[in-house]
Amino acid sequence: MLDVRHGFAPQLALALSYLLDEPAGSPDSNSGDVGFSFSQILPTGARLALQASSTAQAAEGQSGSYASFVSLSLAQPLLRGGGYAVTHEPLIQAERSLVYALREFELFREDFSIDVARRFYDLVNRKQSIDNQRRNLENNEFGRRQAEAFFAVGRTSELDVLRARRSELTARNAQLEAQESLLLELDNFRIFLGLPEDQPVDVEPASPLFTPVRYDARSAVEVALENRLDLCNRREQLEDVERGLRLARNALLPDLELALGTSYATDPVDRLGGEDLERTDSTLSVTLGLPLDRVRQRNAYRSAEISLARSRRELEEFVDQLRVRIQSSFRELERRLQSLEIQRQLIEDQTKNLRIAELRFERGELPNRDVVEANQSLLDAQNALIDEQVGYEIARLQLMRDLGILFVGDDGMWKQ
After folding, report:
1. Could you state, in order of their start, the residue ranges of all structural domains in the chain?
2. Can you tell me the mean pLDDT for 2-24?
């Protein structure tokens, strides 16, 4: 970008030279020259150039002589190659490409923040699952002690005791495996964050706060069409293709150029600073070129037309896919909302079911198989609720990103 912009800034050059000549049998001589040049492309596409030089010569036994020369020229294309859009196309495209890159980087930051949240909530999920498994283990330990006590007084069978012990051991083993898996994932999360090896990492076992979505599917599509950064890029890239078609059309025009020039020079004098510049030449020309071979330019124009038609179809397809994706995201959120309510109801029902099974087992009406199964069902429902809470939050964040309204501040925090 900086290189391209520099190419359209004033171009300055300065040259210095000195020559010492000592020919055999002739007087020694020396000469020096200072040259300066300036050129710039103007907004109209004209090329302005200024050149100036000053020369000093001296020979042994003779007085020195000094001369200067200045020329100014302007060349303005009137048809092919004329105008700001044609001559400044590299600068225009470089500036727009920079905007595209900034938008892509912002989208990367949004996706990266969601990825961090997904990994974080996965750790929260694992930690809460361990808490659920700990409570489940405590229930199984109590159930095993209860079964042993009932067996001691002849109120239950040895099979119930063995079943209770097996359930306790299974719960203990599951908890150990979950703890080991959590430690491994914490290390992976630390590496993902780029933290040093000696930096401990831990997460609070707090579920994500429930945040309702205040849009319906129709209004959400309108928001996305207005705010999506990648959609803005695609629309403006279509404008780039349209501009390319206009440039290809311009290349089919004849060459017509208006040129102006003037120059000033001095006669050699024997005193530096005593030169008087006098105009030596002024020119005005109009040049018309009518190339007979335009095959390459016509092929480029046809390719530009095809590229424009393809870009328009791709943009329409992207917008259609965007509508479908947002509607699908809303359906997923609605499903997760219903699943959250179902899981809460399941936990309530499984808690009651466990209490009933424990009471009936204490009265000797049921074997402890029902207590073991009720414990496991409650654990499954509790873990499923955590999964749905995390899934809803990630889906909501992804929807905000898809709508173009998930903003990440300089500190990495969301600004919705």
Report:
1. 1-76+257-290, 78-254+294-407
2. 83
Q: Give the per-residue pLDDT at 312.
A: 95
Q: What is the pTM of this model?
A: 0.78
Which pair of tokens denotes residue 245?
Answer: 């078609």
Q: Residue 296: is it exposed, middle or buried by C-beta count within 10 angstroms (0-12/13-18/19+)?
A: exposed
Q: For the chain, how many residues are written? A: 416
At 220-257, the pLDDT tens digits run 888 889 999 999 999 999 999 999 999 999 999 999 99
Give the Cα separation of 260 and 60 in Å (integer).
Answer: 42
Per DSSP, the three-state class of 370 is helix
Do the beta carbons of residue 42 and residue 48 sit within 8 Å?
yes
Cβ partners under 8 Å of residue 260, min gap 6:
73, 74, 75, 283, 284
Q: In this structure, what token pair is assigned to residue 369?
A: 């198989």
DSSP 224: H
CATH of domain 78-254+294-407: 1.20.1600.10
